[in-house]
């Protein structure tokens, strides 16, 4: 099943209506770094509409993270070797650190930002406001790639899609102030804006629409060996490591996930407690438990309806609608799969655009 929600990007400045940012701002946007043409940071609804440029006049922003508490964006810039920040409207832009050898991966937690540096082979942290109190968290790391902090404070909310898929027959897409039902390619949305009807001669197929019911399940224990309640994940080319984020003296451990070849990006699903990663060698997205069990290729080689080779670059999970958003270098698009692996479709694709780093803010 596939659906194309946007196949032509609007010119910069087409959508310019902005709501004043405050603590009651309804979110549900996706943000990405754009490498096509002039580099920029872009925002859109999670259905691929209402695209606006938030930040321009920057180099190639390699990684992007959101401070949900203070409603700010942070990014690493490969060309200027800086870490910069702005509010969620792209305003109040600040330089957090400007003397970094080669910043690469980036995440945020509490009062700090954490980043990986290719030249220093390290993970460092600093005050998220001014870049001071810089601390070496881990050194002597070869090919350290992406980095991610998991903690309930990083994102705690809900949206309508988490309850019975928003009563949508096929796809529920969270947007500011609500949600929108959509249908896969070859299907049209009925007049009730919920159900889908097949068009032409295509055969309707069974669609699973039952979604998870209770947000507290995200953070409750399920018996047996309990995982840490908050931790930091970082990837090297052939390993994914975990360490306790609040205990600097805690050593990192290499998770027993086998067959890692070139881990380019990582994400985490707190409901099913699964780690997702981009395998740059095989150009697939895989997942597994932290003990290496239940391995699965979620995005794999093209099928008969997808002839073009995929090359995933970054990924982000909408835990509420149980979907995986990912950017593709070969098609220069933002795509969506269900966490079960089922392909949903393309939410953004443009001839002159090259989306790379990706972050979601799907909560209400």
TrEMBL record:
InterPro entries registered for this protein in UniProt: 6-blade_b-propeller_TolB-like, Cueball_EGF_LRP_Nidogen, LDLR_classB_rpt
Sequence ranges of the LDL-receptor class B repeats: 28-70, 71-112
Matching Gene3D superfamilies: TolB, C-terminal domain
GO BP field: nervous system development
Name of the protein described by the UniProt record: EGF-like domain-containing protein
Species this chain originates from: Aquarana catesbeiana
Lineage, uppermost ranks: Eukaryota, Metazoa, Chordata, Craniata, Vertebrata
């Amino acid at each position: 099943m596939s659906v194309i929600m946007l196949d032509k990007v609007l010119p910069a400045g087409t959508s310019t209506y902005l709501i004043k940012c405050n603590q009651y701002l309804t979110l549900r946007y996706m943000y990405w770094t754009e490498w096509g043409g002039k580099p920029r940071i872009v925002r859109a609804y999670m259905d691929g509409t209402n695209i606006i440029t938030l930040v321009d006049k920057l180099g190639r922003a390699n990684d992007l993270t959101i401070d949900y508490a203070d409603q700010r964006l942070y990014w690493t810039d490969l060309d200027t070797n800086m870490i910069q920040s702005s509010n969620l409207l792209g305003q109040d832009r600040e330089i957090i650190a400007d003397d970094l050898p080669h910043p690469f991966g980036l995440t945020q937690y509490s009062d700090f930002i954490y980043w990986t540096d290719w030249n220093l082979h390290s993970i460092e942290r600093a005050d998220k406001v001014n870049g001071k109190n810089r601390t070496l968290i881990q050194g002597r790391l070869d090919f350290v790639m992406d980095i991610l902090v998991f903690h309930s404070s990083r994102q705690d909310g809900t949206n309508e899609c988490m309850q019975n898929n928003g009563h949508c027959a096929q796809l529920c897409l969270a947007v500011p102030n609500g949600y929108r039902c959509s249908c896969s390619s070859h299907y049209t949305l009925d007049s009730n804006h919920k159900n889908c009807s097949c068009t032409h001669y295509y055969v309707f197929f069974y669609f699973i629409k039952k979604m998870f019911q209770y947000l507290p399940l995200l953070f409750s224990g399920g018996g047996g060996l309990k995982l840490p309640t908050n931790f930091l994940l970082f990837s090297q080319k052939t390993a994914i490591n975990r360490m306790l984020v609040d205990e600097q003296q805690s050593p990192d451990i290499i998770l027993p996930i086998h067959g890692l070849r070139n881990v380019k990006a990582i994400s985490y699903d707190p409901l099913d407690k699964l780690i997702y990663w981009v395998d740059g060698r095989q150009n697939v997205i895989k997942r597994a438990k932290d003990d290496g069990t239940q391995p699965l290729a979620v995005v794999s080689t093209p099928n008969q309806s997808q002839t073009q080779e995929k090359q995933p670059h970054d990924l982000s999970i909408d835990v509420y609608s149980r979907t995986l958003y990912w950017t593709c270098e070969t098609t220069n698009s933002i795509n969506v799969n269900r966490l079960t692996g089922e392909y949903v479709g393309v939410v953004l694709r443009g001839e002159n655009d090259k989306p790379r780093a990706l972050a979601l803010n799907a909560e209400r």
